[in-house]
Each structure stands twice: as structure tokens, then as C-alpha cells.
Amino acid sequence: MRDTLSQWWAELQKVVNYPLIELGDNNLTLNSLIKFLAVVALVFVAERFLRSFLRRRVLARTHLSSDLQYAVSRFVGYCFIAIGFFFALKVIRFDLSALAVVFGALGIGVGFGLQNVIGNIVSGLVLLAERPIALGDRIEVAGVAGQVTKISLRSTTVVTNDNISIIVPNSDLVTQPITNWSHGDPKVRLRLPVGVAYGTDIEKLRAVLLAVAAEQTSVLADPAPTVFFDSFGESSLNFELALWTQAMAVAPRRFRSDINFAIERKLREHGIEIPFPQRVVHLRPTFSTPTSRQ
Predict the structure, then answer these.
(1) Could you tell me if 105 and 21 lie in one domain?
(2) Which of 133, 128, 175, 186 lies closest to 152, judged by CA?
(3) Which of 31, 59, 158, 282 could be joined to 146 by an S-S link, Cβ 3.0–4.6 Å?
(4) For the CA atoms of the chain, what is the radius of gyration?
(5) Residue 285 lies inside a defined structural domain of this protein
(6) How many Å apart are CA 122 and CA 169, to the nearest integer?
(7) Are residues 100 and 146 in the same domain?
(8) pTM score > 0.70 for this model?
(9) Residue 166, CB half-sphere, CA atoms under 13 Å: how many?
(10) Domain residues for 193?
(11) Residue 204's CATH number
(12) For 143, left (φ over 0), alpha (ψ -120 to 50), or beta?
């Protein structure tokens, strides 16, 4: 029985130590592959615990913002994984010089293939360092408008008013103009165009528009709203109601809609006409020439 077990063990040793890949003086065996995978798995598990420890025990006690804490923990995690990967190769006594040429060729190919990803990661570091946007900000970029809910190294998540998550590459946030309604002071001035018919009492119109602004709870009293006479249009006298608010950082479309509803209702109550383009067509009479009779 002992001889049988010894024979099986010897056969098992031959199987696990059989060279799968020969690279110079190094042989990749099943035994070394199992050790490598086990160490890599332990590295990933340890990396998750390390990131959690950093965020909850170390970074939480600093004055860094939550998004910057997340970026720092992720960066430390990536470095830990890279070190753990090389440690796993050392555990199986793998000579990295044997793969120097292979790694060099792969590095060039990966560099070309991942240049956009690398660019987004670098842009993410720039965003976290300069902080032009932060979690909770309302931004508009590349036709996307919404609230920033997540900033990672590669992309930023923006949730629209329709509860649709838009993943924006960080490179777009660095290279394209961004409208940040929440940056610094969320108080902004909004200009609403209003056109009325010729012959309207403009002083009455001014009083009506200011009354609309005063009735809105989202409109700030200081600075006070004002009305500008913008231009003489083809079919209307064009005015602007300028008011200050903080609602543009929360629900801009709802705020504009509520103001427009109120303006239309007030103008209708006071008999102020909102014109529409009109064209007058003059028809010139035509005269037919008499025909001669034979």
C-alpha cells in the first residue's frame, strides 16, 4: 500500500512539475502556476482590505474631500497590486529578464491601444488636483447636463434630471468647456426674454414682470430683479427679466418653466399681448385684354 501511494505521489510530482512553457532557463510548471495564481488572489484580497482601511481609518481623519480620498485609495491599491504581481513572480522564482523583449513589444502595443485610457486617467488626476468639479455639482459638458455623483480615475458619472446616468470620459472634462452651476458661489443671474406687442404700456409691463419675480420663492431679493429693454423687433418689443437665484444648481429646467408659466399668466391677466410674426400680403389686380371678334 505504501509503495502504491509513493508511486502515485511520484507520478503526481511529475505532472505538477512538468514544464508547460520553456523560456530559457525558466520553466513554467503547473505547480508554479498554481502558486502564482494563489499569490495573485491573495494580493487582490489584501488590496481590498488595504483600500477599506485607508479610507475608513486614515483618510477619513484628514480634510480631503470624499472624491479625493477615493482617488488616493485607488491609486495606492493599484500600486499594491503592481508590487504584489512582481512579488508573485519572485515567489515562483521566475526570471523577469527572460520576458524583457516580450514585455517591451507588449508595452508598445498596449501603449498605443490604451492611450485614450491613459489620457483619461491622467485627466482624472488633474480633475482631482485642480477640483474644477466636485461631487454634487451640477454641470453641463458636451451636451450633457446633470449632477455629478461619482468621480473616478477614468470617467465621471453625471445623473440627469431624468435619472439617466451618463458616463463622461475625464478627458472631455479637461479639454472641453464646462458650465459648473455649483462652482464657488451657486448664486447666478438668469435672463428670461419676453416679447410684447407694439403699443404696450412698457411701464406696466415692467411692474408686471417685477411682480412675477417677487412672487417666486426661488428668486433672491438681493440683488434685486430688474427689467431690460433689449431691442425693437420686427413684430415685438423685446425685454429681458433678469433675476438672481440659486435654483439653477438644483433644478434649472423646472425653475425656468415655473417662471415662464407665471409670466404668461400675469400678462394674460393684465391684457398684455404676446405677439407672433405676421405678414401682410397685398394682391395687385390683374387686367385682361379684350379679344377681337371676327
Answers:
(1) yes
(2) 128
(3) 158
(4) 35
(5) no
(6) 11
(7) no
(8) no
(9) 19
(10) 188-269
(11) 3.30.70.100
(12) left
